[in-house]
C-alpha cells in the first residue's frame, strides 16, 4: 500500500481534534491541547480483563497502546472480549483513533498465546526450510489469528543474525547465522504479517545477535565494528523497512566503540544518526521493555524514559501499569522543566497516529463466533505442521 512507503507526519488539522476531550479530563499525562504524554508509552497490565484501576489509568493518562502477555490470556474467547473492551475506550482517547494492541507472538519459545492458537515453529526452523514463500505463508497464518483476536501489532520478526552460538537470548528466535538467509526470511515474514492487517515490529536494532548476555538480566556489550553492522546486521532491517514495516524495536545493548555512554535504546547516535538519517527509517521507533534489568539496573525509573525519548524513541514499552504511570509523570515533568521538547514529542505522536488511523479492526468485520473459529482452526494447524515439516 502506498501509505506504508512514506510515513509522513499528519497535519494537526487532519486529526479532527476540534472537539477534543469534551468533558474528559486527562489529569496525569497532558502534553498540550490535542496531545497526551500517555500516547508515548505502551502499557502492560495484570488480569484477564482491564480492571477499574486500569480503565482509570487509560482515562487519566491518554494511554493508547497496550501489550498483552501470557498472564492476560485464558482462552481465545476471553482474549477477544479483552481486546474488544479496550477498543471500546478508544473513542475517548486524545485522537479517537483505534488503540494499538500488541503482543510478542514470534513462535517457538516466544508465543504468548498458546492453548487454542496454532502452535508456531521457531524462526530457526523456518530459516532451515529456506523458502520465502513458506515464510510468508507461516506469517500469514500467525497474523490471521492475531488479527481475529484483536491484536494489531506483533513484535516480530527478529532481524538479529545469530552470529554468537552462545547467545542466551536470541538463539532459535533468529532465522539463522547468515545475513542473506535472515534478510530473505525477514522480508517475507513482514509481508505476510502485513497481508493480514497486522503491523510488524522488527527487532532488535542495532543488532542483538552477537551478545553473550541476556538484556533481561544485564547490560550486554558488543564489539562489532560499525562497518560490519552496516554490511551485515543492518541489511535485514533495511530490507524489512522496504517491505513496508512501520515499527523498529531498539536493543538494550552497549556498543562502546560507537557510543561509549549509552545503550542502543538511549543512544541518539544509533536512533537518530544511523536509524533515522543513514537508514532513512520514517516509522515508529519502539523501545524494548523498559523494565528489563539492562535499563533498570543502570538508569533510574524517571531518568530512563527521558533519555529514551531524547535519543529518538517514539514509544516506550512498559510491562506493568505502575511503571507506566511513573514514566508518564516523569515525561510530563520533563516537559514542564524543559528537558523534553514538546514539538519533538508531537512529531512522535503524529507518527504513531498515522498508523493508528489506518488500523482495521476484526470486531468491525466479523462476528465473535467467526473470529474464534478462525483462531487455532484445523486448517491452520494442518498447514503450519506441513510448513514446519
Uncertain segments are 1-27
Assembly of the depicted chains: single chain
CATH superfamily: Glycoside hydrolase, family 3, N-terminal domain
The percent range for helix content is 25-40%
Query: Into which percentage range does the β-strand content fall?
Result: 5-15%
Explain how this protein is built.
- By secondary structure, this protein is an alpha/beta fold.
- Residues 1-27 have low confidence and may be disordered.
- It is globular and about 55 Å long.
- It contains 13 helices and 12 strands.
- It is 40% helix and 11% strand.
- It has one domain (32-388): Glycoside hydrolase, family 3, N-terminal domain (TIM Barrel).
- α4 (132-149) packs parallel to α5 and α5 runs parallel beside α6 (226-242).
Short description:
With 389 residues, the chain is α/β, with parallel strands linked by helices. Helix content is 40%, strand content 11%.
Task: Please give a handful of descriptors for the protein shown.
389 residues; TIM Barrel; single chain; disordered N terminus; eight-stranded parallel beta sheet; 13 helices; 40% helix; alpha/beta
Amino acid at each position: 500500500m502506498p501509505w506504508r512507503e512514506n510515513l509522513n507526519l499528519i497535519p494537526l488539522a487532519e486529526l479532527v481534534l476540534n472537539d477534543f476531550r469534551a468533558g474528559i479530563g486527562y489529569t496525569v499525562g497532558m502534553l498540550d491541547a490535542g496531545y497526551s504524554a500517555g500516547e508515548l508509552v505502551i502499557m502492560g497490565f495484570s488480569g484477564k480483563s482491564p480492571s477499574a484501576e486500569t480503565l482509570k489509568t487509560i482515562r487519566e493518562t491518554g494511554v493508547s497502546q497496550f501489550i498483552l502477555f501470557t498472564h492476560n490470556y485464558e482462552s481465545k474467547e476471553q482474549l477477544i472480549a479483552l481486546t474488544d473492551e479496550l477498543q471500546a475506550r478508544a473513542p475517548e482517547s486524545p485522537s479517537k483513533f483505534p488503540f494499538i494492541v500488541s503482543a510478542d507472538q514470534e513462535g517457538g519459545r516466544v508465543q504468548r498465546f498458546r492453548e487454542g492458537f496454532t502452535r508456531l515453529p521457531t524462526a530457526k526452523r523456518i530459516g532451515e526450510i529456506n523458502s520465502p514463500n513458506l515464510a510468508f505463508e507461516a506469517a500469514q497464518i500467525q497474523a490471521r489469528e492475531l488479527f481475529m483476536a484483536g491484536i494489531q501489532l506483533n513484535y516480530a520478526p527478529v532481524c538479529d543474525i545469530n552470529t554468537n552460538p552462545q547467545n542466551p537470548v536470541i538463539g532459535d528466535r533468529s532465522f539463522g547465522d547468515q545475513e542473506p538467509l535472515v534478510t530473505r526470511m525477514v522480508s517475507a515474514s513482514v509481508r505476510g504479517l502485513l497481508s493480514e492487517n497486522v503491523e510488524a515490529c522488527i527487532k532488535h536494532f542495532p543488532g542483538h545477535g552477537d551478545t553473550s548476555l541476556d538484556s533481561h538480566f544485564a547490560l550486554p556489550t558488543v564489539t562489532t565494528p560499525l562497518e560490519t553492522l552496516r554490511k551485515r546486521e543492518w541489511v535485514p532491517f533495511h530490507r524489512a523497512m522496504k517491505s513496508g514495516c512501520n515499527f523498529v524495536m531498539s536493543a538494550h545493548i552497549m556498543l562502546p566503540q560507537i557510543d561509549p555512554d549509552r545503550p542502543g535504546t538511549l543512544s541518539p547516535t544509533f536512533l537518530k544518526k544511523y536509524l533515522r538519517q543513514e537508514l532513512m527509517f520514517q516509522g515508529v521507533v519502539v523501545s524494548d521493555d523498559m523494565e528489563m534489568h539492562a535499563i533498570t539496573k543502570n538508569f533510574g525509573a524517571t531518568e530512563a524514559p527521558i533519555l529514551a525519548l531524547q535519543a529518538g524513541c517514539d514509544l516506550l514499552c512498559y510491562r506493568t501499569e505502575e511503571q507506566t504511570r511513573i514514566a508518564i509523570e516523569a515525561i510530563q515533568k520533563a516537559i514542564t522543566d524543559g528537558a523534553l521538547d514538546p514539538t519533538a514529542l508531537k512529531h512522535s505522536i503524529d507518527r504513531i497516529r498515522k498508523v493508528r488511523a489506518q488500523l482495521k479492526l476484526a470486531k468491525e468485520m466479523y462476528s465473535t463466533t467467526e473470529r474464534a473459529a478462525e483462531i487455532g482452526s484445523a486448517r491452520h494447524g494442518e498447514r503450519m505442521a506441513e510448513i514446519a515439516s
